[in-house]
């Protein structure tokens, strides 16, 4: 592993896995299973193992976006992986894309988008959330995502930069749809995440009114299976409603 790289340490305890995020540095990492000398991680490849001073063995793993979703420090509700999948697939996000995104929040969507796209510029209006998001992105090892403090509506209103996709997860998204149009390249996608159906409808109508085509709104349902000796069936605890996704193409 490289200096300053984030590492996922995974260990097994009583038939369960425990996971921790740490950084390759000269410092010690402390947990209930003992002390891990993170300096030793420099000589270990991802997939290798390291042992704490109490003899507990940990797998050394390079974290992926779902690990950051589970373990990153949150400032609010991050977008769920099921919705991220819809955004990436329906808008065709790819490695040549420049993406404008807001609000950054905990930076979870920015991490997923940064793992796929060429460049992501993410705006967060709350200064106190920006530092946490930057720390999460740095832990994710992404240098192609820039978090800026500011109002995305002002940025889009200026219309001085152009993007392949704009992804909005902000409160008053319907009012900002018309400005998004002037910051998108022809053929680019606007994606808006709306927790409420009234907001989704307003976004849809604004997008049609602003001249976008191929406007459609969807909700993605996810149902996990519970597997046991007795039988396999949908898990009683499941992800309920999260939000609606509106896609509009310039
Ligand atoms: C639900 S959170 C976004 C979560 C994020 N998608 C994630 O996956 O972590 C919404 C965020 O948008 C920010 N926000 C609201 N209006 C904004 C605006 N006009 N420009 C930039 N950020 C905004 C809020 O401060 C909040 O942190």
From TrEMBL:
Coiled coil: none annotated. The keyword Glycoprotein does not apply. Keywords: Methyltransferase, S-adenosyl-L-methionine, Transferase, tRNA processing. The keyword Glycoprotein does not apply. GO terms for biological process: tRNA methylation. S-adenosyl-L-methionine binds at residues 106-109, 124, 169. Pfam families: GCD14 (PF08704). Residues 73-229 form the tRNA (adenine(58)-N(1))-methyltransferase catalytic subunit TRM61 C-terminal domain. GO terms for molecular function: tRNA (adenine(58)-N1)-methyltransferase activity. It comes from the Archaea. GO terms for cellular component: tRNA (m1A) methyltransferase complex. PANTHER family: TRNA (ADENINE(58)-N(1))-METHYLTRANSFERASE (PTHR12133), TRNA (ADENINE(58)-N(1))-METHYLTRANSFERASE, MITOCHONDRIAL (PTHR12133:SF1). This is tRNA methyltransferase complex GCD14 subunit.
């Amino acid at each position: 592993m490289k200096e300053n790289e984030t590492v996922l340490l995974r260990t097994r305890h009583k038939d369960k896995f425990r996971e921790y995020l740490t950084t390759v540095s000269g410092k010690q990492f402390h947990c209930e299973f003992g002390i891990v000398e993170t300096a030793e991680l420099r000589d270990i490849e991802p997939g290798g193992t390291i042992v704490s001073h109490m003899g507990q063995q940990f797998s050394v793993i390079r974290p992926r976006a779902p690990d950051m979703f589970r373990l990153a420090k949150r400032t609010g509700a991050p977008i769920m992986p099921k919705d991220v999948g819809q955004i990436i697939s329906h808008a065709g996000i790819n490695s040549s894309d420049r993406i404008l995104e807001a609000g950054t929040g905990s930076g979870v969507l920015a991490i997923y988008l940064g793992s796929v796209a060429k460049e992501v510029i993410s705006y967060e209006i709350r200064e106190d959330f920006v530092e946490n998001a930057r720390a999460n992105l740095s832990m994710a090892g992404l240098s192609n995502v820039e978090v800026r403090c500011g109002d995305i509506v002002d940025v889009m209103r200026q219309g001085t930069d152009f993007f392949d996709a704009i992804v909005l997860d902000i409160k008053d998204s319907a009012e900002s749809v018309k400005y998004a149009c002037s910051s998108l390249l022809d053929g680019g996608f606007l994606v808006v995440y709306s927790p409420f159906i009234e907001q989704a409808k307003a976004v849809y109508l604004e997008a049609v009114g602003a001249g976008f085509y191929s406007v459609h709104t969807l909700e993605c349902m996810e149902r996990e299976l519970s597997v046991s000796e007795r039988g396999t069936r949908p898990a009683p605890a499941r992800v309920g409603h999260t939000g609606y996704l509106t896609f509009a193409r310039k």
